[in-house]
Structures are given as C-alpha cells and as structure tokens.
Records
---
Amino acid sequence: MFSSHPNAEYQLGLAQKSDAYCQQIAMKLGSNIDNLHIQQIKLSYKYDNGILLHVNNEYGHETIKIVIPFSCRSIVLKSCHDNAGHFDAKKTLEKLKSRFCWRSMRKDTKLYVKGCIVCQKVNRRTTLAYGLLGERSFPQVPFQVVSSDHLSLPPTKSGNCYILANICHATRFLVVTPTCTTATDDIINTVEKDIINQYGPPLTYIIDNGSSFTSAKFHQFLDKYGIEHLLSPPYTPQSNGLIERSVVPKI
C-alpha cells in the first residue's frame, strides 16, 4: 500500500514521529533501562528505514507488521475495505492484521464498516425484519390479565434472593412476593397462593422467556386453570413494559 507511492514511506515515518503512541515505543527502544517491559518492547518492535515495525516471532516464524499512527488509520481502513470489495468487519480485520498493527484495530474496523455508506445502501438484510409491536386491549375486569417477572435482590436473613412480581393490567395493582429461587415450583406456589386463591385465575398470564416460565410443568399448571400463556418476544422488554417499569421504582 505505502510502497506504491514514492514518498509514502517518508510520509508514514513523519506521521509515526508525530504520533504519541509511536513516540512512546521509540523512547523505550532507545532506553538504557534494563527491565522486563523494556526487553519485551525491544523484542516486539524495531525500526527499518525509519519505519516503526511490529515483530512477532511465534512458533519460530517471524511476522513483521507496520505500526500505523492515528493520522493514517482512515487511509489504511479505506484501502482494506473500500478498495478491497467492501467485505464485512471480520474479513476486513483479517486483511488488516496480516500487514498492519495498532492497539484499537478491532474496534476501529467495526466502527468503520458499520459507518460505510456503500455497505448500508447495497448490503441486504439476511435475517427477518423485526415485527411491529401491537397494542393489547385494555381489560375491564381486575386480574383478568396479569404480567409477571423476577427481580434479583441482595439476600435477606430469610434466604430470599428474588422477588416474583405480578401486576394486574386493569387496576395496576402490584403483588410482590419474596422467593429463594426462580424455580418453577416456587413460581407455581406463589401464583397459586397470592393470585389464584386471592383473586381467581386470570384469563391471560404474560411473562418473559425464562426457563422457569417456559417449562412443561408450568404449562401444565396454567392449563389446569385454563389460563392463556403469552410470552413476550426475546430482547424486547417493552412488549411487557407494564411489569418492567412498575417493579423497579417501587422496590
């Protein structure tokens, strides 16, 4: 890349001399201090024709890479991404790592590829688009629709580490019960004691995709009382927002 221009190596050398990180390496290479860190720097870096290089002697094979100063990184990224077929971040990073070296290469590559206008226009989505969240009908009868969720807390003297929160969609009445675990048996006992025995079985029970809520035993429990089991979509807490925003402010 740099060798294709007559003054490229000279310009790169000037950029390295004005770069803070390259200056630190240069000072350590010229240092007379004898400690493990300085020895490691001298084994890992060297100058060749005024250019700072990174040297890696792994498995007896020497690999030499150019240390890229901050001011030249956008040029290198453009060459290895824009001028090389607009590959994804992983392939662009592999191409960069084969010839160049700088500390934040992985992060910079991801940000550069993510912000590439051409990639955003041309690349097609390979996964299904997210569906729109619909509105639920507002129940008129108390405890007809109930949402539930777990919240972890510091252990109490009784050994309780969690609370199971249930909220009525009609009245916004919140029922909070401390529990020792998030196991299915504890959920069943709590729902049966604090919800069903007190207010009757709800028509709909809305919960997340936790393993305790999706187990066969919990399904059998809901079927026993004829309760509809609704799961909120993964990674979308807003779909069960009533319980999500009601628990934390009240605890």
---
Amino acid sequence: MADTPLDPQQAALFREVDDDLRHEQLNRLWKAYGPTVVAAAVALVLAVAGWQGWIAWQTSSRVKEATAFEAALSQGVDTNHEATAQALRDFASGASKGNRDLAVMKAAALLAQAGKVTEATALWKELRDTSNADPIFRDLARLLIVQHGLDQPGADLSALDAELAPLLGPSTRFRYLAGELRGLIALQQNRRDDAVTLFTDLAADRSTPYGIRARLREVLMSLGATVPDAP
C-alpha cells in the first residue's frame, strides 16, 4: 500500500518537531562535550602562542649569546691569550651546545699559542669526552691532542696512538690526517718500516687529499724510501 502524501501543514509540523529534536540533541552534546572542546581550543591557541613566544625568545637568546661570545673573544685576544681563554671558558659554561663547543675549541687554541699545552690538552680532552658535543669537534679534539702531544717531552706514544684509533675507520672524516699522525708516532717509536708502509699507502691512495699526498711523498724521499708514482 502506497504511503499517503502529507499535506503541507503536516509536513511543516514534522519539520518543526525534527528541528526541535536536532536542537535538543545538539544542546545535550554541547553540555557534555562543549567545555572540553573549548578547553582544547584554548590549549591549542596557547600552545601556538607559546611556540611563537619560544621562537622569539630563542632568537633573542641567540643574539645575546652571540654578543657575549664576541665580548669574550675581544678580551685581550691580541695581548693576553690566557685571559681570553678564561673568558671563553666562562662563556662556554652557560652557552648553547654549538657555541659552547666553539668557545672551548678556541680557548684551547689560545692556550696552546701561549705555550700552555697541558692546559689546552685538558680542554681538548674535556671536549672529546662531552657526549653531546658535535662529533666533528670531538674528532678534531683527538687530532689536536695527538698533534701537540707528539711535541711534548716524554710523551706517552702508545696512548697517543690509541687516541687515533676511532678516527682510522674507512668512512671517518679525518682518517687521512689520523693515518699521517700514526706514521709520525711510528717514527718516534723507531718503527721506521711501519711508518714507511703507512706513508706509502696514503701517498698511493687516490682518495687521499692532494696536500697530504704531496707532503708524504716528501717525507718518504727524506727517509730514503721508494716514493709511489703520483696517482
């Protein structure tokens, strides 16, 4: 049996009842969930505002830190390396990671220039052992420990050789410099043949930077060893 069509008045009444029911349902939903929705919206706005504030603070903080770094560098840099190194160390104690590493590296370099190799080495070791320092700075610190250690009377050559071990892998960034230093250690240990082998391998390797290859060819000539053909 076919449905009897509603007359216009009945249709209007049903629409009104339906609208009332929908309105009542929305009211119930709002009472139940409205406060949570508002709280979430407020939290979102505050989070965005907080993030923007954090970005602004970070920018301001970096400007202040850069200014402090420059001030530390300017303290007697041309006349008193030790004073500048101390200023940089003081700055590093409260600086962000990147600026901290730079400040420690610069302070150590100034101490080395002032003849304070022991103090400089202590800073390089501190940087080497800082777990969240940039790996490049940690590796550079190892190289500098060895480079300056070789010039010190009574140096522990075995310890210096061990310092280079993490840098000698086939994919490490400073493997060529580390290999060259290892050859110099071998020479100081009177292991000439080992040194010649190390230098020859590096000089014959096409991937070795040109400057290192050229330098090692001269070293091999001075040792009276066979110099490999230029790759």
---
Amino acid sequence: MSVNRKMGSREQQDIHAAARSGDLIAVQSILASNPLLVNSRDKHSRAPLHLAAWAGQAQVVSYLCKQKADVGAAAMDDMGAIHFAAQKGHLEVVRTLLMSGVSVKAANRKGLTSLHYAVQGSHLDLVKYLVKKGSSLSAKTKAGKSPLDLASNEDIRLFLVECEKSLKQGNANVTEKDEKVGAKPSPQDGAENSGEEDTSVEPNEEHDEGVKRKSVEDDSHEAPPEPKKTRVALNHLLSADDTEEDAE
C-alpha cells in the first residue's frame, strides 16, 4: 500500500511538473495510464491546470480542458486557473479557459477578478480582451477597489476611463429612449402639432335652395305612369281535365 501511495505521489509530482513546463507528451502519457490525475492536487491545492495556466502553457491547458479537467476548480484563496493566467498576462490561455466555460466574472476570496489581475499586472491587451468579453468594470475587491483603482499603467487607466464613460453614455441613451417611448402625445398635442388647417366649408343656403327647386322641377317632368294592362281570360287555353279540377 505504501508503494502505491509513493507511486501515486510520484505520478502527481510528474504531471504537475510536466504541466508547468509545458511537456505535452509527458502529460498525455501520464494521463493515459491514470486519467484521474487530471484533477490531482499538490500541497497548495493546485491542479495541473492551475500550473499550466500560470506558466502560460496554452497547448497543455487546451489538452487538459479536453480531458475533462475541472476548469472552475479553486486552489488556495479560491484562485482559479483564469486568475493565475491573468496575473501573468497569458491572453491565449485566458481565451481557452473562457471557451471551456470559465466565467469571466469569477472572483477569488479577496474579491479579485481576472480583470483586476490583468490591470494590476499592466497587461493592456488582456485588459481589452476581458472588457470585450464582459468583465465588470465596477467589480470591487474586499478592500473596495475597482479595476480602475488598481491601474498604474497610464494607457490602461485611460482605456478604463473611456470604457466607463461609454458605459454611462450608453445607459443615459437607453433611459432617454425609454422616456420617449413611454410618453404618448395627447390628441390635443397631435392637433396642435399637425400644422394642418381646417378645410371644412360652411354650408351655402342659397345653393341648397337652388338644388331643391331643381329637384322639384325635375320631378314634374317625369314620364306619366303606364296604363294598367287589361286582364285577359286564359280559360280557353286550359285542357278539359284542368277545367274539371277547377270546377271541383
């Protein structure tokens, strides 16, 4: 049993070292013999994925994700693989982790998100990518610090300021649009703003009287009614049998 423990411990050390150094072949070989080692932990509760992410080993990270590594697993202080990658500015690793289902808004025990770490490390390209992917600009750490508060790089600071301005402007535009949609014009306002004049015409009494007289004159000249037609007896056209039936 002690031998098995030693073998397991040695295999764990090997896969952790291979993941950290980017030795993809070694990682594949170890997991082929023992797939459960994909989520094995070291004394700091770090899995191979954490170490590969911290070291920027994009190929190993991609392979581990495909081998069902726990992409949301937390090491000490709730540090996830995305936090380790963001600390070092490894954009490709962060991209792979997000595609594998990691939340861009995930925070560790201190409340730091991947954006906090990217800003703190002055990784401008990663900061831009995380913002594009929906990382919160207003997220606060346990100490009450936003990503902008941690910005020491001037380019990053200006970028975050512009992002916040755009966000506020966008919210203002949405609010203004909602107010316009909610405000319905009254019928009176519609009449006042239509700019159309009343085109109705007052009735002309003389004209109406002339029309009435003409109508009477036209009626007086109508053709006389046709004379009533004389009824003609048709009994002579009936057959003898029909006559007998009438008599009955």
